Amino acid sequence: MASKVVDRCNQHIVPIIENLGYDVLEVEYAKKVDGMNLTFYIDKQPEGISLDDCERVNNAITDVLDEINVTDDAQYILNVSSAGLDRPIKNQKDFLRNKNKQVEVKLYTAINKQKVFVGELIAFDDNGYTIKTSTGEELFFEKEKVAICLPVIEF
Question: Is 69 helix (H, G, I), strand (E, B) or coil?
């Protein structure tokens, strides 16, 4: 059911959001503490997302969601959210936002007694992540071995 809802949203709702000038990084339909949640994670470069942006998108899609009935009458809570500065890098759009920036790759299992690696994100595909360390070494990590890949936030 969840993939069906996401597919329908990608087909009907994402184009509406993109026509407003936003990137949709992910559509998520998942059970949370308060019930089923349909969440659209949006971004706009270079300025980022404000509360007004989330409200604008919410207002633009609410009636269309009701009209096409993406959940087949199942109740849900609609969320429109910023991707956030520290959003994990999970897909191609996340990669494009973080390409050539510093990231932290955390592994499930250590390699040479090390589970955390930091470097510049230089490549991403369906198989994994490639970073360049401060010493210039390029390291590839298979996706299934990566617990999480996060941008390094510097203030």
Answer: coil
